[in-house]
Design goal:
This protein is α/β, with parallel strands linked by helices and 326 residues long. The protein has twelve helices and eleven strands. The protein has a six-stranded parallel β-sheet, covered by helices on one side. A five-stranded parallel β-sheet has the order 8-7-9-10-11, with helices on both faces. Helix 8 crosses helix 9. The protein is globular, with a radius of gyration of 23 Å.
Amino acid sequence: MPGKKQVRLAFCDLAPDWDAHDNYFAQTLEHAGWEITFCNGPEEKPDFVLCGTFGFDFLKYDCCRIQFSGEDSWPDLNLYDYAMGFEVLDFDGRYLRLPLYAMRSSWAPALTKHTVPDEELLAKKKFCNFVVSNDYSNERNEFFAALNAHRPVDSGGGYMNNIGGPVTDKLVFQRGYKFSIAYENSRGPGYCTEKIVDAFAAATVPIYWGAPDVKQEFNPAAFLCADDYPDTALIAAIDEIDRDDEKFLAMCHAPILAPDGSSRAARYVTDEACAEFLTGIFEKGPHLRRNRSCWGSIYEGDWKYYRRLAEADRKPKGLLQRILGR
């Protein structure tokens, strides 16, 4: 029997809640037959480094860099050899669209939410919930204020909390409600996050705003899209569905993937796309795709220079430096 494929891999700049040795990418690779030698820094000479967007340690690695962004940000393929993220683009085999929602525990129950029995759905007596930790989106803030003024909405996050404190389990909290406000932090093509998927997983009707192409991602029959309703018409549509059990059940029983197979999210039902993308990179052996010519080296050098300046500025200053303002 052939042995497992070997790869020397480091992780850096991950989100605070990610484990560098036990995460979606490590698990996907191990399931695909890779044996990972985890490297804890550039000094351990990894062949590849998989980088998040929560830091700048990637600049310390001279090996092949693979970026993953779970934010609304475009990959900088001048600094990374490969990238994965929300954006919908093609770049000569160097990019894979991989939305963050496909990595979350809510993804599996979201895919089967249309099978929840009627009696469980009709037992929901609470109106609408809102679970948000920040005030980044004016559109989201304004809609919550408008709907809450029309009819009380239970806010269970850190922002505008009105239930006595943030909830500890978002999905458990959401399951008691008929509707969930699922507005993104920002608006951009392809930027469909876990917010709508969490609402699906809780068997609620998502009220969505964000990606203008969300109907290409998920079945439009399964959620309310704010873009379809001018002014106060969205609140009127929510009221209509809330009063009509048949309409409510129809949305709850609509699968999140369109029956005609057109939903973009169907690609992420399994981890195969990620496994194939990373396997294709690793099987080439250690290599670089980012620009290392004159301009590429200057561009990266400028990044390193300004990072050093920023780090020096954060260091405690002596009395003379403070007096001189340096």
